[in-house]
Design brief:
By secondary structure, the protein is α+β, with helices and mostly antiparallel strands. The protein has three domains: 127 residues, PAS domain (Beta-Lactamase), CATH 3.30.450; 86 residues, Helix Hairpins, CATH 1.10.287; 145 residues, Histidine kinase-like ATPase, C-terminal domain (Heat Shock Protein 90). The protein contains eight helices and twelve strands.
Length: 454
Amino acid sequence: MARINLFHSVFGRVTLSALLVSLLSTLALFLVVEKIVVDDGRARLAREVDTDLAGLADIYVSGGDTELRARIADRLSVEQQDGEQGWYLLADAQGRRIAGNLDRWPKLSAHVSEARFVTLPDGQRMFARATRLGPSAQLLVGRSDMRGQALLARLAMAFAVAGALIALFSLLAGHFAARRLRVRVEAVNATFAAVRAGRIAARAPGAGTSDELAELAANTNAMLDQVERLIEAQRAVSDQTAHEIRTPLMHLDTRILKAMEGTQDSTLLRTLDQSRGEIRGVVRLLDSLLDIAGTQALRGDLRGLAEVDLSDIAETLADLYGASAEELGIGFHARITPGVMLRADPMQMMRLMSNLLDNAFKYVPSGGSVALILSPGPRIIVQDDGPGIPSADRTRIFERYVRLDVGSGGGHGLGLALARAIAQRHELSLHVEDAAPGARFVVQLEDLAAGGSG
């Protein structure tokens, strides 16, 4: 099974989506909690500051400026038990310091009793409120936010740890869930691969359960059942058609032969013999069409195939065509590598090579040459030095009834179509190249042809 890229896999994206959702959910929850904590801390600081500020304002009203400075000094001398730090500044109307532990008046308006967080020159953060005590005095009271900042830091650490654990659990759960789904989908894919490899009876597992993948498996099996029925029906129709048409033609040929035996009329004998030739031509045409249709129907079906020594087949054909070539005055050369094996139908592979050789011998004039080359791969080459094939016709010649020598008579233009159908059934490619001069027919594995080999 090929290694699946995480981002290109549906299951990988589901796992990453689960991880992303868990992280975003954790982040959203942290932001909500942070907002609550910040608002609550601000409200707490505001109450403390407002209470202290109100008390100091009462002291100013009752005791005056001197008493207020004494009380501010008392507050500064007392260490806060909760670790918070208090900030005080009593200033005149121009903001000049009279008492307190702040050197300068921050950007807070005492006229409107403004309250907010302020960052001090040393980087500390405090919540402060400013108010006017009279025409010549204004007071600021502030509290540091150490507790709030420490709480936020602890919350951030807690959510970071929790988020990491949630992400890990989400990733693990998503991985195992996606892995289980992937195993079930791969089982369906493996079924299609098995059917494509020729095991037409293969079926997808898991069709008995009650989820969407079970429905997919059930539909897959139903489709494969229908495909198998169609293939069997096509075979049955082909066989029946061949029998129903071939039988009466052979009977007709027999009756013509008997009629020829019962007459001495030379003209009638020539006519009857011509009729017998036409009948045999129709039978050959029918056989070729049925062979092409049957072979195309078996494409990818490995039933009935076995390991075949192509070298033995090629050697046999080389002996047969070598003798014919000598009689025709054509040079024939065979370069056959021993032990070239292929899972194939031996009769069909012999038919493929013989059709290519017949085509080569048909177009090579006396004095020309034909070569049969078999090399590992397998790679089969039939090459001639005849007139060649125009580039515009190099794909068209593999179609049914296509003949480039219409005026020469004989043949139905089905030999190369059958050769290609046989090649495709065995997962081979067949194409023609310019041999300069002549034509070169090449048979090789489909993946090598797709990769540009040739």
